[in-house]
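To whoever is on call:

I kicked off a structure prediction for a single chain this morning and the downstream step that reads the tokens threw a length-mismatch warning. I double-checked the sequence; it's 135 residues and nothing unusual in it as far as I can see. Pasting both halves so you can look.
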Amino acid sequence: MQDNFFDTNILLYLASNDHIKAQKAEILLASGGVISVQVLNEITSIARRKMNLSWDDTRSFLALISGLLQIEPLTRETHQTGLDLAEKYRLSVYDAMIVAAALLARCNVLWSEDMQDGLVVNGTLRILNPFSTSP
């Protein structure tokens, strides 16, 4: 069982100018964890579209992330579980697919800045915002 699953937004701070959030992300990643193929796809899209990284720089960043973390594949089971979670917890489809991947990877924490901080999904996965100031 892995403890940590990372949403895209946490990983993008590694390449940002926000040094405080980048440092927090580095500390969390030091203990390892899991991401999904969807997270890699989202990083690629944002790196190219919003960060204007070259393909070489994008591939280097993806290689860094892939070398640090286990990658949960996208499967039909991920898709079906994600649909069920989207309906049950009123998550966006894309967020639900990340939550589904975290559940299927048997993680107990999903680090995300964008999802509902403190939400417990299916009694086993807690979504936490690492930048939250609440206890």
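Update from on-call: the warning came from a stale cache, not from the record. Cleared it. Sanity check on the structure: The chain is about 50% helix and 15% strand.
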